[in-house]
Amino acid sequence: MPGPFTITPAQLSRLIGTPDCPALIDVRIAEDIAANPTLIPGARLIAHDQIASATLAPGQSAVIICHRGRKLSEGAAALLRCNGIRAEVLEGGSEGWRAAALPAIPLSTLPQTALWVTRHRPKIDRIACPWLIRRFVNPAAQFLFVTPAEVPAVAEKFHATPFDIEDVPFSHNGPNCTFDTMLDTFGLHTPTLDRLALVVRAADTDAHHLSPQAAGLLAISVGLSRQYRDDLEQLTAALPLYDALYRWARDGFDEGHDWPAGRPQ
């Protein structure tokens, strides 16, 4: 019988991608990771005997993940609760997540650093990609916005992952934009993210016929770029925009609005 501090894969999947998602901490041992070398989106690996040193944002809760949701996650969650942190156990652990056929990121695709670098003065793709990384790949990711010509050298000198420039893995691919490439690489294709990706692609590649929402995203993105001189301030301001677009893509994409209803055309 599940304990009182248990969350199901379906419940957790509804939280991932939202700003209210708890910290996801994977405490699996090496042999279990080798058997299933993936991470639940947004999770980080911390050894079970190091759980007391885990750092969380003030007031943030946690979900602990082990192989099957038993001793390691139960013990780690209980220890966090002793330290005043609300912590739940993922029912069934990583195996339960896999059995539910929910997205998981191959460990081999994850950069070795939390630092990313791209061209300065972002508009659409260079805001959408940081949103995706923060919400689904690494919540602690940091982003450097630099002069376009200096992106490769900054990436090399500061061990950062370059994106949305030519001749790097995380970039445009044919008609698809960098956001699409990241969905492909990290195995994050879901109906919700695919729906959002279409809007991003249509706005970023001037293909507004693909999505009626694209013109609005372009207009707001250009407005934000004019409103903020500091790229990091712009990113901070734009993250809630993509949070809202994600919820639209998940829960409200089929909703229209007209007032007064039924008026003559």
Which secondary structure elements does this structure contain, and how are they paired or packed?
Blueprint (H helix, E strand, L loop, with lengths): L5 E2 L1 H7 L7 E4 L3 H6 L2 E2 L4 E2 L16 E4 L5 H12 L4 E4 L2 H7 L5 E2 L8 E5 L5 H13 L4 E5 L4 H8 L2 E2 L15 H9 L4 H14 L9 H14 L3 H22 L13
Helix pairs in contact: 5-7, 5-10, 8-9, 8-10, 9-10
pLDDT averaged residue by residue: 96
**Amount of beta strand:** 5-15%
Overall radius of gyration: 20 Å
Topology as a string of helices (H) and strands (E)? EHEHEEEHEHEEHEHEHHHH
The oligomeric status of these chains comes to: single chain
- The structural class is alpha/beta
Helix content: 40-55%
How large is the count of helical segments? Answer: 10
- Across the major sheet, the strand order is 1-6-5-2-4
State the total count of DSSP E strands: 10
